[in-house]
Amino acid sequence: MHLMNQTSLKDFILLGLTEDQRLKIPLFILFTGVYITTVLGNISIIALISISPRLHTPMYFLITVLSFVDLCYSTVITPNMLANFLSEIQKIDFHQCLAQLFFFVAFGSMDGLILAIMAYDRYNAICKPLHYHVLMTKRVYISLVIAACTIGSVNSLIHTLCILRLNFCEDNLIFHFFCDIPPLLKISCSDTTLNEIVLFAVAGCVEVGSLFVILLSYTCIIWTIINIKSSEGRQRAFSTCVSHLVCVTMFYTPVLFMYLRPSSIYSMDQDRVASVFYTVIIPMLNPMIYSLRNKDVKEALSTLIQRTPLL
Q: How far apart, in whole angstroms, are the C-alpha atoms of residue 17 and residue 273?
């Protein structure tokens, strides 16, 4: 208990994305632009879908939820990273570190689960079109979103409690730009075997389970598309899935690389680059992907612009 009290009062030092002082101001300017784009893009998608009656469908409701989660996901990490660029030493106390870890894992888990629900929605729309409105009622998709938020929060709580049991002795340098599980395990002076087992087991159940739902859904979708006789029908069916497939690929590639591997092959530089991609870049790209490649969104935006009186 004495060691736990020492740990809870300890300050950590985040070494940030780079230790090169010459790069910090250019990176601050770059990522400030990225964050502003992320905020404006996701808020715009949420607002557009909310005020456009033609977009009040399960698919666009899920896109709204994804945009909200992406916005929260980025906000947990990016402002702190920007502050790090402007200070020589970025301190974060143990409780702030745990809070950041909790919300980061929670929103990250929700992101993957929402993508799985979106894949299930596309499966019902393409493979069972006659029963779609029965299978994806408002009660069903809202319940699925609530379940995703609950599972993501519980997953995050488990990992946070596992970090809380660790001791941190002399080494308080976190070779990262935020509090994440692998760098914290790396500097702990406790036995982290249990944490690694929990990371593989729980993260495997949530992330790999979500990915399995996505792969299974798209296996059925591809089989159904292949059996559509008209090329126009096949193209129309596949076009509804392209944006989602791009988002899934971008999200899961770095996530699986980061977490489903032993700590013995942990690489600080590789992890920081991968983390930038899925915590900062992807939340900015998702609204662009869904707006630029989505005919309904573009038409709704065009209609809104035409109806907006010129000042």
A: 8
Residue position matching structure tokens 């690929």: 249
Asked if 179 and 121 count as a contact pair (C-beta separation under 8 A), the reply is: no
Using CA atoms, how far apart are residues 27 and 85, in angstroms rounded to an integer?
A: 8
Among 243, 230, 228, 282, smallest CA distance to 111 is for 282
Of 305, 300, 240, residue with least CA distance to 46: 300
In angstroms, the CA 218 to CA 125 distance is 12
Least confident span in 121-130, 246-255, 288-297: 288-297
- The secondary structure of residue 173, as a DSSP letter, is E
Over residues 48-73, the pLDDT tens digits come to: 888 888 888 898 899 999 999 999 99
Buried b (16+ CB within 10 A) or exposed e, 175-188: bbbbbbbbbbbbbb
Between CA 193 and CA 199 the distance in angstroms is 10
pTM: 0.87
Q: Strand ranges (DSSP E) for 62-116? A: 90-93
- Apex 122 CA angle, 121 and 124, nearest 5: 65
What tokens were used for 65?
Answer: 């939820």
Tell me, what amino acid is at 230? S
